[in-house]
Amino acid sequence: MKDLRYFDPHRRATWLELFFDLIFVVSIGDAGEILSEAHEGHIGAHQILRFVLVFLPLWWIWAGHTIYANRFDTDSRQHRLSTLLIMFLLIVISAQISAGLQEHYALAVACYCGARLIIAVMYFVSRRKHHDRGGFASTVGTVFAVGAAISLSSVMLEPPWSYLVFYAGIVFDMAALVLLSRRLHVVPAHGAHLVERVGCLTIIMLGESVISISAALADITWIRSNVIAAVSGFVMVSAIWWIYYDSFHLLEHRKLATGHSILYSHFFLFIGLAILASLIRHAILDDLDPGDFRQLAAVGTVLFFLGKQYGYYMEVPELRPYLLSNTAAVFALTALVLMLPLGLGAILVGLTATMICYVLLNLRYRHLVRARQAAA
User: Fold this and answer.
1) Residue 345's domain spans which residues?
2) Which candidate among 157, 216, 288, 300 keeps its CA 20 to 30 Å from the CA of 206?
3) pLDDT score of 2
């Protein structure tokens, strides 16, 4: 047990984990191209659904490895090689997204299942590294192996059944971990490390949002509306950074059980971030129907705030009244902005203003948190 980073009192994310985050975000960037394709000024519901379905297996590979590394990382050569192989499989999947998943479905599924089986094997190899005699590692390793087997069997079927079976394997993984949560309490999540991991990934995704602003500006003629949209987009990303990290220290010092409330909620947060980043790009290019823009703005805002707030709601219960009231206020302001007859740039300015309003509303409970921390 001595070689486990789990017991390091000053544990930080490793350079390999940060490299993993970077590879994951590159893959998500390829998936995000689905939302950048406006067909005659429209983005249909099927595009949003397709993005979510492509995003889910990529995120679940990252989440599965994060769950493992959070408890069993030794930073050994075996761990590094296994992680690098998973990263390579992510790159291959990303390439299939760009080339067209339908034509390369079997290869993409094989790479996904290969990554999940590698994680399962890592669990089985590590089952004696904690004091529970392998119960935790054996349980999770078995769940991941069965889920991968279910998903892999989809290559023998024709659409749409192949897709249903593939995602059934992912749902099996998630549901099994939730149902077995009490058994997983024997090896609690390393709270500070898990919070740092999701925080590092979020900051890289915010960086990708800035890259999308830069890419959009490279293809336009500079006029006032474009400049306003670009400035507003950067201010929105900055406000999102403030909203996300201003209270981040409250989670870092909490004792987590399974960590599911943090990990699972970030699935919705990341989708919300990707949608909002896409909206900034479309506002700069002014190439999207206002109705579609409003719908995407509503979905992106709701997913971002629900994903961000749920972890705090579950792990920092003293903040629940403030979280509910602040979120309700932001949703009301967002609805008001989206109902106004505005152009894309003006809507983006309004959405940015609602984000700034949340930053200001957040100041209401900072004194309460500090007082309770001092009393503790």
Assistant:
1) 191-375
2) 288
3) 47
Shared domain check, 242 and 298: yes
Tell me the whole-structure pTM to 2 decimals: 0.90
Domain co-membership, 235 together with 215: yes
Alpha-carbon distance values, 164 to 52, 60, 292, 296 (Å):
14, 16, 28, 26
Q: Which residues contact 373 (CB under 8 A, 6 or more apart)?
A: none
Whole-angstrom distance, CA of residue 345 vs CA of residue 160: 39
Per-residue pLDDT tens digits for 72-107: 898 889 999 999 999 999 999 988 876 666 677 889
Q: Residues 153, 244: one domain?
A: no
CA-CA distances (angstroms) from residue 97 to 29, 139, 164, 245, 271? Answer: 10, 32, 18, 31, 17
Neighbours of 295 (CB within 10 A): 15
Total domains in the chain come to 2
